[in-house]
Amino acid sequence: MITDSELIQKRLEVKNEIDEGTNKTPMARLFNFTGRVVQKITRYRKPLPFIVCVLVSAVITLLILGLNYLLLFRTGQATTQITPISAAIVVETSLLIVAATYFNISMVLAGIRDGVVDFIMSLEDLSKLHEWVSLGWSPGTVRRFFFWWLLIPIGPMPLLVPLFSQQGFSADILIPSFLFAVLGGLSFYYAPLMVLLPIRLSNYRFKLYENDPARSEIVDTISTILNRFTYGYVFLNVVFQLSLAVANLPIIAEAAFMIVFGWLPVTTQYFVNQACIRTIISRSKKRTLNRIRAEVQSLHEGDVKNKENLEAINRLVDYHERIRATPNSNLNMQILGNFLNQLALPLLGFLLANINTIIDLFR
To answer: Rounded to an integer, what distance in angstroms lies between the CA atom of residue 84 and that of residue 62?
Structure first.
């Protein structure tokens, strides 16, 4: 039999893991590493503010890009495939997105710590949540993700670039592309984990408002956390789409970025979120209805001629029907409208980034 003290202890463990791990995510490690390097060089003892670490990282990436183009120009290997300014804009925007993703994920983790953990009623479920939280900074998970993430875009680059450019592959896009891929991986790392989160949450046992589970506080909390992440992801995707306008990519390549990193993740997240909420509500309703049916059955086995028994049975039947009639999800027009807005925003970013090309098509 699980005691309240065991639940309290496990909840505290999960909350401590979140508090300690927020600064161990891949995004945080990048800026923390930059801060430690600056501390060693300057012998400054106090940890640097986060914004300072971001600014220093931006300066370092600019120096790397500048040295790259300087060496290529001196050796005569530079081309006009992508200008230094365009490369700097894309890479620096990617770095900005990494920093914003750090804040977005920090808010998600804080929401789980403050609004979800205390409503979980099972030690096993708390252990599974602890496992999911730890995936955010598990060295093995991070290494595997970046192995495949860098292998896919960097490996076939010499073969793919000639398809999009008449100049073919050139050395001046190698360093910007590598930085772009690394920073893009840091920004996208949590996207699969956030799809996994509602899948796991749907199997947990929560403390719900039994009379109408769809109106439970935890249901609203989970919905808010997931929607907040999705809106943050969509906004950053729009910024990303706008930055591609200076990269001179073909419009079909930018459309592919919008679909693969815009519409597909958002659509998947929306349907997984709704399935999670529906499962949590339906499971709670099923438990309550089964308990009511058991009570009715026990009364039927007694003296059904007894007036008090009949009144109790009628009350339970009415209660059963009232519970059964409650909604199985919190889906409404506002949530559906939010989803359509989330799909429209990446498209808006794509249209703004290619406004001149689109105008030319209609002339």
So the answer is: 10
